[in-house]
Automatic annotation (TrEMBL):
Keywords: Metal-binding, Zinc, Zinc-finger. The gene is LOC108556858. It comes from the Eukaryota. It holds the Pfam family zf-C3HC4_2. The keyword Zinc-finger applies. Gene3D superfamilies: Zinc/RING finger domain, C3HC4 (zinc finger). SUPFAM superfamilies: RING/U-box. SMART domains: RING, Ubox. This is TNF receptor-associated factor 6-like. The keyword Metal-binding applies.
Length: 222
């Protein structure tokens, strides 16, 4: 029920979810005790309410600006005086460690989930902002079978090959099926041609020779 309340009321808070976008952007899902019920991301500057629920400080501040604001989880009346800093949770989150999303490109940094966003701006293994021209991009190895995708670097290409196996198999199967159809059509055409040659009418000289033989036989009989 609490989840339904949060989901219904969350759409009324403009701009709150954008304040903490780490989970959405990097797919780093926090534990429920470290997740803000408003923005659904890691708690930033966590606070706890008198009714025992944790939120990002900025998220709950924006929430309380609504008229007759209440707790987003249990709907109990809530004011700014009912909210307190949660330093214990802040320390717990700061001790959490996650790998940089650019680990596939060689980055071995492990850092707090709250620092990932800042780290990515300066990570030496990040994808360059200047995109490669089409002529310099890497083609999918199944491009000759019909896969249109191109990539900026080897890790992206490798992930594509690992994640798109089923589509590549379908492309390969279609090619094989078309080849079999072409071979079958060629064999059928060859058989028809042979049958047509077998039933070709005799030439005029062959007819004249045959008629001469018949006349000779009739003369001998007489």
């Amino acid at each position: 029920m609490a989840g339904n309340v949060v989901g219904h009321q969350q759409s009324k808070v403009d701009g709150v979810a954008e304040e903490s976008s780490i989970s959405d952007a990097l797919d780093i899902a926090p534990e429920s005790r470290f997740e803000c019920p408003i923005c659904l991301a890691w708690l930033r500057d966590p606070v706890v309410t008198a009714c025992g629920h944790r939120f990002c400080s900025n998220c709950i501040d924006l929430w309380l600006k609504k008229e007759n604001a209440c707790c987003p989880v249990d709907n109990l009346k809530l004011t700014r005086d009912d909210i307190f800093p949660d330093n214990f949770t802040r320390r717990e989150i700061s001790q959490q460690r996650t790998k940089c999303p650019n680990i596939v490109r060689g980055c071995l940094q492990e850092l707090s989930p709250l620092d990932v966003e800042t780290h990515l701006l300066n990570c030496e293994f990040r994808i360059p902002e200047s995109h490669l021209p089409e002529s310099e991009k890497l083609h999918c190895l199944f491009g000759s079978f019909g896969c249109p995708h191109k990539f900026e670097d080897e890790p992206e290409l490798q992930r594509h090959l690992e994640n798109d196996t089923q589509n590549h198999f379908k492309l390969f199967s279609n090619i094989c099926k078309n080849l079999k159809i072409s071979e079958a059509s060629g064999s059928a055409s060859s058989a028809i041609a042979q049958q047509a040659n077998f039933w070709d009418p005799p030439s005029k000289s062959e007819v004249n020779n045959h008629e001469g033989s018949v006349d000779s036989m009739q003369g001998l009989i007489k």
